[in-house]
Amino acid sequence: MSRILLIDDDAELLSLLSAYLIQDGFSVTTTSDGAMAAAEALSGGYAIVVLDVMMPRLNGLDVLRHIRRESTLPVLMLTARGDDADRITGLELGADDYVTKPCTPRELVARLRSILRRTTPGAAPGRLAGPLTVGALTMWPEQRRAEWMGGPLGLTSTEFNLLELLLRHAGRPVSKADLSENALGRPIARHDRSVDVHVSSVRRKLGSLADGRSRIQAVYRQGYQLLKE
Predict the structure, then answer these.
(1) What global pTM score does this model have?
(2) Which residue intervals of the chain are DSSP H helices?
(3) Could you tell me which CATH number the domain at 3-119 has?
(4) Which fold has domain 132-226?
């Protein structure tokens, strides 16, 4: 049973979503206090956090900042429909994905299951055993572990999925549609910049080549490509 921390200041929505998630087999803890939520999320007892952006005392983006300072725990943001700025900021801060409000409980459950399938070590079908290596990058997909230049590489669950796919296709472009399907677990939507934001974050973590180029290149009309060194 996956344990979920559900954070929202809308008491009616909390009750509705919590009841639906419990009925669907999840264990759910709820809170409407952003300051308390940050500490609770880092307690080590949760598989994923569902976090509303608009929160009292400490808003959702600040809660996310607190979580990301210490943990790569998966975080699914709840954002207002049409509020692109909050969505982009949340992704840049390390959110794994977002759902726009109002959302249906069924949509939320589908997105949660998609993220959890991709964050459980050894759970994804079709993975090859053993490490994947290109240059100074090594990934152990079945362990959800990555190293860069011999040291641990801290990645969110979505960043891990995205980089793993690029690594498996190193030297060849991977379309944004494939990256969205495999890293975020959903079809890419029109004007959706989620993949671009996640790629930008991974680029920063890998640094640049000696000539200043990014190790992940955009290929016109084809997607993104991890360069072979």
Answers:
(1) 0.86
(2) 11-23, 34-41, 60-70, 84-92, 105-119, 157-168, 176-179, 194-206
(3) 3.40.50.2300
(4) Arc Repressor Mutant, subunit A (1.10.10)
